[in-house]
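Our consortium's second objective concerns turning raw sequence data into structural hypotheses that experimental partners can test. To show how far this objective has progressed, the report includes one record in full. It was chosen at random from the queue rather than selected for favorable results. The single chain below, 359 residues long, was entered without modification.
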Amino acid sequence: MHLNLHKKAYKKVLLIANGYEPYHNDISHLAESVHYIDPYSQDKNYIQSLEIFKKYLEDNNLDCESTKIIYGSGLEDKIDIQEHLDNEFSIAGNSFSKYRYLSNIYNLDKAIFNKKISLPETSKSYHYKFLSKKHNSSGGLHVGNNMFSKNMYYQKYLPGKTYSISFIANGEYSKILGLNQLFLVKDNIKFPFLHAGAMNLGLSEANIEFPKNFISRICNLYQIKGYCSIDFKIIDNRIFILDFNPRLSSSYRLYTRKYENLMYHHLGLINNEVNMISEQFYAYIILYAKKDLVISDSINELENISDKPIIGDSIKKDMPLFTINLHSNRKDDLLSKIKNRIICAMKIIDCYNTDLEYE
C-alpha cells in the first residue's frame, strides 16, 4: 500500500496511553482530529469504568465508523473496555484479545524456544527468590514481592541488566529496529521495578546476539502487526524472555527519531522498507516524584523534556514528573549525558534517582 503522506488517513483517532506525547506528535499528521486518554496527565479518569468510557466516546462523537483506536497502555485491568473496543472499533496493530493472550509469555508456543532462548522459571506460590508479577501490566507497576494478591504469578528473579529488542511487523514481514538497555527507578521501596527509561545500544552490540529467527517465527505464528518490543535478560549466554509487548511501548520514542514514518508503519498505512534516517543513539529518562509536590517555575530550567507538567500542578508521590530526552553520536557519551542530566534535575526537583548500573 502506498499512501499520500500529505493526506489525512483517518477522520478521528483515539489514542489511549500513559504518557501520550510521543505518539500524539506523530498521530497529529494522520487524522483530522486526535483525542487522547492519558490517566497520568488528565485530572479525570475516563477509563475508570466502561460506563464512564462510553460517556466519553459519546460526548466526543467518537463513533465506530469514523474512529481509529491506537493503544499504548492504560487498559491493563480494563477487560470490559478492551472487549468493547475489540467488538465495536478498528484497532491499530493487534487486537486487545491477542494482546491479552500474548502478554502472558507462558502462553507462547513452546516450539519457538530452544536452549539459547527460553522463559524464566515460575512458582505457584510466594518464594523469596521470585518476583510477583501481573499479566498484561506495563511500566513495572505490578512487579515486586506481593505475597497476597490473587492476580499475581511468581517469576524467578534474574540479576543483571535488562534489555529489550524493538521491531515492526505486518503479519508476515518483520524488521528489527534495534536493541535497548532498560533502566529502573532507584531506591523506591514501594515500586522497586518502575520503568525509568531506556537507551539505544545499536544492532551490533557486543555480547548480545538475539536470534533474529525468533522474531520472525513469533510474528508469523501469531500474525503480529505494528510496533512491538520484547524485554529480556542474558544469563550465562542464554536469553530469558521477561515480557512481550505486542503494542506501542515507551521505547517507541527512541525509534520514531531513528526511522522515517514509523507510525505509518505501525498503522499499516505503508508497507515499503522501514528507512533509517539517523544513526545517532537516543535515550529517555522518566523521573518520578519522591514526595507529594507542586510544580514550580524552576522546571523551566530543564531542557529537552517532554510530558511536562504545568506550573502549579500537584504531583503525587511515585507519579511520573516528566521525561528527559537525549541523543549523541556515541553510546558512551550518551550515558555520560544521562548521568549529568539526572543530577541537574535532582537539584531542581525532589525526584528519585535512576539505576543506570547493575551488579
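The partners drew two points from this record. The mean pLDDT is 89. Residues 121 and 247 are 25 Å apart (CA to CA). Both points have been shared with the crystallography group to help prioritize constructs.
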